[in-house]
């Protein structure tokens, strides 16, 4: 039992994990398992020690709360940042893809237009020199005179 370590030392009391040391009256008591925190009627939090003698229970609770809060805040910030970046990168990719598709279509139309202009120019040259074949019968025989 933890009460056997009363009036000895904090280190001896806290060797047993189920014990709580109180500095106000130098007693070793059973840790109140049913309640998470020991009640002030047993021992004030600033004078209670559990686990190690050099950290009081109040500081331990504050430190654990701060660490848990920092972890939760960092996880929340990371999740929000990742979601925001994904949304932003998706919209950027979509915009870039649309822009590339527009440019590709413009180049294709310009190429078709240049091809048509070349065909017209070549047809004029063929017509000028009498090389333009009859569109009704493209396989007519070419006769030399």
Q: Could you write a compact summary of the structure shown?
A:
The chain is mainly alpha-helical and 145 residues long. 53% of the residues lie in helices and 7% in strands.
Which oligomerization state do the chains in this entry correspond to? Answer: single chain
Strand order of the largest sheet: 2-1-3
What portion of residues belong to β-strands? 5-15%
Poorly predicted ranges (pLDDT <50, ≥5 residues)?
Answer: none
Principal-axes shape call: rod-shaped
Total helical elements: 2
| Most strands sheet | 3 strands, antiparallel
Order of helices and strands: HEEEH
* Helix residue percentage: 40-55%
Number of strands: 3
Number of individual domains: 2
Distance between the first and last residues' Cα: 130 Å
Class from secondary-structure proportions: mainly alpha
Radius of gyration, whole Å: 45 Å
Mean pLDDT: 84
GO biological process, one term: protein import into nucleus
Organism: Oriolus oriolus (Eurasian golden oriole)
GO cellular component, one term: nucleus
InterPro entries: PTTG1IP (IPR052304)
């Amino acid at each position: 039992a933890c009460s056997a370590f009363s009036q000895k030392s904090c280190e001896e009391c806290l060797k047993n994990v189920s014990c709580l040391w109180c500095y106000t009256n130098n007693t070793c008591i059973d840790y109140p398992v049913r309640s998470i925190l020991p009640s002030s009627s047993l021992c004030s939090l600033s004078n209670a020690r559990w686990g190690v003698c050099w950290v009081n229970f109040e500081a331990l609770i504050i430190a654990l709360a701060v660490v848990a809060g920092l972890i939760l805040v960092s996880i929340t910030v990371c999740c929000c940042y990742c979601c925001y970046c994904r949304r932003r990168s998706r919209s950027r990719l979509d915009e870039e893809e649309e822009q590339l598709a527009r440019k590709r279509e413009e180049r294709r139309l310009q190429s078709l237009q240049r091809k048509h202009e070349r065909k017209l120019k070549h047809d004029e040259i063929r017509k000028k020199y009498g090389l333009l074949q009859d569109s009704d019968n493209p396989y007519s025989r070419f006769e030399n005179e």
